[in-house]
Write a structure and sequence with these properties.
With about 250 residues, the protein is an alpha+beta fold. The protein is about 35% helix and about 25% strand. Helix 2 packs across helix 3 and helix 5 packs across helix 6 (about 205-215). The model is unreliable at about 245-249 (pLDDT under 50). Pfam families: cNMP_binding, HTH_Crp_2.
């Protein structure tokens, strides 16, 4: 169920991405200026979407993009045999609404309750045409989304479960970390079966991979949804990918 928010002033549009060009700061950073945030907010609708709600379906005519302010959204394809293939998870600071020829290319569903700015596509297009810095910010974000898609493809092509899981954890570190140091503790936003679906594994394989990472002293599970990062180098050693830069390079 969608609803307008009573406390709209608590939220502002925000787009986060790692820089494209060489810089001293390598982690995800805010791309919008205060003026751009105010302009986008003026032309959008702040909505709350309950958990488990389909925001749009694959093949549906595209009218909006969403800037996530709070919560988590998954996008996926339904395969002919009826199974799902998760293509991405979107976090606060992300843009939702990938389209082609005016139609959404996947189905989007909320994993957690979501607060998002619903922006008409035509409005965002006009704002970008009139603001070269906003255009550059959107391009930077698209570049990051492309990199994430490539990493996901390579990640699930790895033969064993532990490298896939290690790569997934390292990716979460780039989202929740910074340029100074990786997070000492990581709150997993997904249940075990959701991680398995994203990584193309069974839930049992993910459980065994967690056990292997833990027995190697790379991580420690505090709760089913909370892990401690004990040894970042060991965690990197399991992954065949270099996920991001900065704290993970």
């Amino acid at each position: 169920m969608n609803s307008s928010l009573d406390h709209a002033n608590e939220f502002m549009p925000s787009i986060y991405a790692a820089p494209v060009f060489k810089t001293l700061l390598c982690a995800r950073k805010e791309l919008l200026s205060p003026r751009q945030k105010a302009e986008i907010k003026k032309h959008s609708k702040l909505t709350r979407i309950d958990q488990g709600v389909v925001v749009y379906e694959e093949g549906e005519e595209a009218s909006y993009v969403w800037n996530i302010a709070q919560g988590l959204i998954e996008t996926y394809h339904l395969l002919p045999q009826g199974t799902r293939r998760i293509t991405s998870f979107l976090f606060p600071g992300d843009l939702l609404g990938l389209m082609e020829n005016g139609f959404y290319v996947s189905t989007a569903r909320t994993v957690q309750p979501v607060v998002a700015f619903q922006i008409p596509i035509q409005v965002l297009s006009e704002l970008a045409l009139s603001d070269s810095q906003l255009s550059a910010a959107l391009l930077t974000k698209l570049c990051q989304d492309l990199r994430e898609a490539q990493r996901h493809i390579i990640c699930i092509s790895q033969k064993d479960a532990a490298p896939r899981l290690a790569t997934f954890i390292l990716w979460l570190c780039t989202i929740y970390g910074n340029d100074v140091e990786p997070p000492k503790e990581l709150s997993l936003p997904l249940a075990r079966h959701q991680i398995a679906e994203y990584l193309g594994l069974t839930t049992e394989s993910v459980s065994r991979a967690f056990h292997l990472l833990e027995s190697s002293k790379a991580i420690m599970r505090r709760t089913p949804r909370l892990i401690s990062i004990l040894d970042m180098e060991k965690l990197r050693g399991f992954s065949t990918l270099e996920v991001g830069s900065g704290i993970l390079s």
